[in-house]
Amino acid sequence: MPHNLLKAVFAIAAVVAVSNIPVISSPSPVDEIPAGYIPSGKAMFTQYCASCHGPEGKGDGPSAFTLKRPPSDLTALTATHMGEFPRQYVMNVLRFGPGLSAHGSSDMPTWGSIFQVIDKSNENAVQQRINKLTTYIASLQKK
Question: How far is CA 34 from CA 15, 27, 37, in A?
Fold first, then answer.
């Protein structure tokens, strides 16, 4: 019996010792985006637009040289539209694409359909993205 009692004590001691060891769990996923999250206009511009239009929207991004025609200088939209920022036009280009030559090149993606996929066809989220991006582009206008 003393031998069995000794085994039991060691078994209990082992369980207690193991239970005090912190369990290493995988960290929470950093890449998970909360449902309904819409990035800022600047963040989306940096992620989706700056590679072609450049960080300041002047059409001088690092990928611009690969396009058939240079990307538009987004800082000149107000100047080329009689001094008024063409908000609805910009929203339509973002939503439906540039058309054949309205934006300078058909190389530009149609962001509306891409946002539909990203936002799982949540129309409100898509519209918020387009509004934020349009507002940010308006802020880039030459003064």
Answer: 39, 16, 6
